[in-house]
Automatic annotation (TrEMBL):
Chain ranges of the Helix-turn-helix type domain: 9-57
Top-level taxonomy: Bacteria, Bacillati, Bacillota, Bacilli, Bacillales
Coiled-coil features, chain-numbered ranges: none
Domain WYL: 130-193
SUPFAM superfamilies, A to Z: Winged helix' DNA-binding domain
Pfam families per the UniProt record, alphabetical: HTH_11, WYL
Record-annotated membrane-spanning stretches: none
Family matches, as PANTHER family: PROTEIN PAFC, PTHR34580
Protein name (Swiss-Prot/TrEMBL): Transcriptional regulator
Native source species: Cytobacillus solani
């Protein structure tokens, strides 16, 4: 991210007083031209940087800079800091940490905070996110094994374009060579990622994640009875338009689900607080699956 690099450059200059465009380009994995554009942007925004040419020249941060008076307003900086903290919780990358160090100079407590931190056992997913971001930035062609929502496994060769965090899960927009179109891939279903070459970027428009339409593809609209003890989960996911109050304890909910083990396991995670009402085909398949699970433990 550009903001990460800008804050990282400032933090680096605070510590080292002097640097060079070559040194910064190596540190942030970008070319020298990009670094010089960054220096111009920072100078225009009010950061007192200056450059000297020659054998002993370089890029300097003026000794007169007052770190408690950043060029952005406190509200803007606090909003940026909140976003960066959320990114740091998930990715734990050094550039974001450097940006937060700079922003913390404002000395204010934010009025809004997001906690997206992954569990300690989820380091593999964290690494996958960082690897994919690297491949996107370097135009690297990737291959991986993928298990779809039907439980079918296949080998994919794709051009990665974007990583998205949505509804507590990570996804990737990528152009698939087998389907010859852009698809959404869930990172938790990917394994054995490898880089097999490079590619030239084609025309790409970010795939839509709005409204949940993409999640409802090939899903069945299941009517549920949901206990008030867990209704908050469904309100967050579906909104009130899909939920109706039945009595003091139960709600009627329309929930798009896969008619397979993935959908059944989603319901089982709510235990006795959720009951399937219709359609009959889904109800019968769900009962059959529960019988199979019960028999497995006998």
């Amino acid at each position: 991210m550009k903001i990460d690099r800008h804050m990282g450059i400032i933090s680096y200059l605070i510590d080292h007083k002097k640097t060079t465009a070559k040194e910064l380009s190596e540190k942030f994995n970008v070319n020298i031209r990009t670094i010089m554009r960054d220096i111009d942007d920072l100078t225009l925004s009010g950061i007192p940087l200056y450059c000297e040419k020659g054998k002993n020249g370089g890029i300097y941060l003026s000794d007169s800079v007052e770190l408690n008076k950043p060029p952005l307003s406190k509200t803007e900086l606090m909003s940026i800091e909140t976003s960066l903290k959320s990114r740091l919780q998930v990715l734990d990358d050094n550039s974001t940490f450097n940006a937060i160090l700079k922003l913390n100079k404002i000395g204010e407590t934010p009025d809004f905070e997001i906690d997206l931190s992954l569990s300690k056992g989820n380091t593999e997913l964290r690494k996958l996110v960082l690897d994919l971001l690297s491949s996107i930035r370097n135009n690297e062609l990737i291959s991986f094994n993928y298990i779809n929502s039907q439980g079918e496994e296949s080998k994919k060769t794709t051009e990665p374009y974007r990583v998205v965090y949505k509804d507590k899960s990570w996804y990737m927009d990528a152009y698939c060579y087998s389907t010859e179109r852009f698809n959404i891939y869930k990172l938790a279903r990917m394994s054995n990622l490898s880089i097999i070459g490079t590619f030239s970027k084609r025309e790409y428009r970010p795939l839509s994640y709005n409204g949940g339409e993409w999640m409802e593809k090939n899903k069945v609209r299941v009517t549920l009875l949901v206990n008030k003890l867990v209704i908050d989960k469904f309100l967050e996911l579906l909104g009130r338009e899909n939920i109706k109050n039945v009595d003091d304890t139960w709600y009627s909910v329309i929930y798009p689900l896969n008619d397979n083990v993935f959908g059944y396991n989603t319901l089982l995670s709510y235990g006795k607080f959720v009951k399937v009402v219709s359609p009959a085909s889904f109800f019968n398949n769900f009962i059959k699956y529960m019988d199979e699970v019960r028999n497995f433990y006998r």
